[in-house]
């Protein structure tokens, strides 16, 4: 069996690695000139590590530094602390990894001969029971075509007419050396202010991952640069946010308008399947976008391995992934709404409610997505009977 994967990002490389591991022939088409990525960072939670294990990529991301800290308001007052007790048990399972490191680990499991960079896909069509991918250099035919080409997916046009929509917020991201002003777990937090969020978390090699979000007209760029825009937006916020932005440089800042997709009626049409942002682009406020792409890849790989035929495998993939990702997208949107309140009385009420909530309840509500396993819904697990 052979597969063409459109998109050489994290989801596309993960499914390519998993299928190659299971004996499939794979071809990955990437429209950029190469498979390297400058990118920022990605949060990997326990469900993501199970997915990586299922596609054969484990123990290759170097030092794991768990995420602790919590939520603060923009004046610096804690809303939720997550640096002790049960909270640490869960947050220790999360890692902030550089996208370059993750992508390099995945590339190590995809043969060089299977990678085609600088290829722009034009369309997908069916010929009999196989799918044909037309690109600017010709055509490829395969038993399976996987659209992992992001929120503006070309492959999705074959599966669904859904179009992306601007979510109302823009995200700025950066990875920088850890400033001396960052003094450990007291600094690791997501900070909520009027219609804006700023997060800061540790990475390996004494680096820090920072992100900010705010309401901006789509495509509207600051005339004096994105770093200047960040410094204006977060001026007056609690330390160490201003100090971190003072230590940053313009070339470190990446800006992306956030787009989402409406719920699709299917992720599969014939031998064509969607995964990642091509299927369920969501706002980033639970740190689960990349994790869900990895889950998609693992589920698809386990499905083709365990189901009696490809059609059945794709049907089960669709049945399993749509409800899961739809729920995650909905929770991410709810989290984003709560975090970006602009009306001061609403923020005061929100903070008071969260402070009154037992930390264990808050942590469990966040931890529910982590229990996912690649074999769920695909492999019947027979309980081991105790010896008589």
Describe what this molecule looks like in 3D.
It is built from 12 helices and 18 strands. With 388 residues, it is an alpha/beta fold. It has a domain at 2-65 and 99-164 and 261-340: 3-Layer(bba) Sandwich (FAD/NAD(P)-binding domain), CATH 3.50.50.60. Helix 1 (10-21) runs parallel beside helix 4 (99-107) and helix 9 (289-306) packs antiparallel against helix 10. The chain starts with a strand and ends in a 21-residue tail after the last helix. Mean pLDDT is 90; it is low at 381-388.
Question: Could you give the topology of this structure?
Answer:
Blueprint: E1 2-6, H1 10-21, E2 25-30, E3 41-44, H2 46-54, E4 70-73, E5 78-81, H3 85-91, E6 95-98, H4 99-107, E7 115-117, E8 121-127, E9 130-135, E10 138-142, E11 144-147, H5 156-159, E12 165-177, E13 189-193, E14 196-203, E15 207-215, H6 226-233, H7 241-247, E16 254-260, E17 268-269, E18 272-274, H8 277-280, H9 289-306, H10 310-339, H11 344-356, H12 359-367
Parallel strand pairs: 1-2, 1-11, 2-7, 4-13, 11-18
Antiparallel strand pairs: 3-6, 4-5, 8-9, 9-10, 12-15, 12-16, 13-14, 14-15, 17-18
How do the strands line up in the largest sheet?
Answer: 5-4-13-14-15-12-16
Radius of gyration: 21 Å
Name the CATH superfamily assignment of the domain at 2-65 and 99-164 and 261-340: FAD/NAD(P)-binding domain
- Helix coverage percent: 25-40%
CATH architecture of the domain at 2-65 and 99-164 and 261-340: 3-Layer(bba) Sandwich
Low-confidence stretches at least 5 residues in length (pLDDT < 50)? 381-388
What is the mean predicted local confidence, pLDDT?
A: 90
CATH class category label of the domain at 2-65 and 99-164 and 261-340: Alpha Beta
Supply the helix-strand structural class.
alpha/beta
What is the count of DSSP helices, taking H or I runs of 4+ residues? Answer: 12
Largest β-sheet summary: 7 strands, mixed
Strand content: 25-35%
Q: What is the approximate shape?
A: globular
End-to-end CA span: 45 Å
Order of helices and strands: EHEEHEEHEHEEEEEHEEEEHHEEEHHHHH
DSSP summary, beta strand count: 18
CATH topology grouping of the domain at 2-65 and 99-164 and 261-340 = FAD/NAD(P)-binding domain
């Amino acid at each position: 069996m052979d597969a063409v994967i459109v998109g050489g990002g994290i989801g596309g490389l993960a499914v390519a690695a998993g299928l190659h591991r299971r004996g499939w022939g794979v071809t990955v088409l990437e429209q950029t000139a190469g498979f390297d990525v400058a990118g920022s960072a990605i949060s990997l939670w326990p469900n993501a590590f199970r997915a990586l294990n299922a596609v054969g990529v484990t123990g290759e991301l170097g030092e794991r530094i768990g995420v602790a800290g919590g939520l603060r308001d923009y004046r610096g007052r804690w809303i939720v602390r997550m640096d002790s007790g049960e909270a640490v048990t869960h947050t220790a399972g999360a890692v902030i990894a550089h996208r370059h490191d993750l992508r390099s680990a995945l590339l190590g499991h995809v043969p060089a001969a299977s990678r085609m960079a600088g290829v722009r896909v034009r369309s997908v069509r069916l010929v009999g029971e196989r799918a044909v991918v037309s690109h600017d250099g010709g055509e490829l035919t395969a038993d399976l075509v996987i659209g992992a080409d992001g929120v503006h997916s070309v492959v999705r046009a074959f599966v669904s007419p859904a179009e992306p929509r601007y979510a109302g917020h823009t995200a700025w991201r950066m990875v920088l050396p850890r400033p001396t002003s960052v003094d450990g777990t007291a600094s690791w937090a997501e900070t909520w202010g009027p219609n804006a969020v700023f997060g800061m978390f540790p990475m390996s090699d004494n680096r820090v991952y920072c992100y900010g979000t705010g309401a901006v007209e789509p495509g509207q760029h600051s005339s004096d640069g994105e770093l200047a825009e960040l410094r204006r937006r977060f001026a007056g916020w609690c330390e160490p946010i201003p100090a971190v932005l003072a230590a940053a440089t313009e070339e470190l800042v990446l800006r992306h308008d956030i787009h989402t997709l409406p719920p699709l009626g299917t992720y599969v049409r014939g031998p064509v399947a969607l995964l990642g942002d091509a299927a369920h682009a969501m706002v980033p406020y639970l740190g689960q976008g990349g994790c869900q792409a990895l889950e998609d890849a693992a589920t698809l790989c386990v499905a083709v391995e365990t189901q009696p035929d490809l059609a059945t495998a794709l049907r089960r993939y669709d049945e399993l992934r749509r409800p899961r990702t739809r729920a995650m997208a909905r929770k991410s949107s709810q989290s984003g709404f709560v975090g970006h309140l602009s009306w001061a009385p609403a923020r005061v009420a929100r903070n008071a409610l969260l402070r009154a909530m037992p930390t264990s309840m808050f942590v469990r509500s966040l931890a529910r997505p982590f229990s996912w396993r690649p074999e769920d819904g695909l492999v019947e697990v027979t309980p081991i009977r105790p010896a008589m």
